[in-house]
Known about the structure:
It is a single chain. 20% of the residues are buried. The protein has helices at residues 20-23, 30-34, 66-70; strands at residues 10-12, 16-19, 40-43, 50-53, 76-78. The protein has a single domain, classed as Alpha-Beta Plaits. It has a 3-stranded antiparallel β-sheet. It has a two-stranded antiparallel sheet with strand order 3-4. 18% of the residues lie in helices and 23% in strands. The protein is an alpha+beta fold. It starts with 9 loop residues before the first strand and ends with a strand. The structure holds iron/sulfur cluster (2 copies).
Amino acid sequence: MSEAESQDVIESYKFHHIDTSKCRQCKEFSCEEACFRGIYKVINKKTIPKSTVVQEREDHCVKCHICTTACKLGAITID
Length: 79
Ligand code: SF4
Ligand code: SF4
């Protein structure tokens, strides 16, 4: 997909940002598996997947960046 075609839909939390347009084509959901702090919950896995941040858990993030590496689609950024 070219830059022009991709429609970024960035969902921002306190300091996590997820390009949910990329989650739509995801089949691995590796963010959820990779984060040992349980920060991510992927919803609608069988239809239109979307990664979300469990808001009450966000502050448990240690900024190890395992999740940003695990997400092969590069959907996650952390401030
Ligand atoms: S954040 Fe990455 S790994 Fe998680 S559902 Fe979205 S595209 Fe998939
Ligand atoms: S940086 Fe580490 S602790 Fe924070 S959400 Fe990603 S995997 Fe989880």
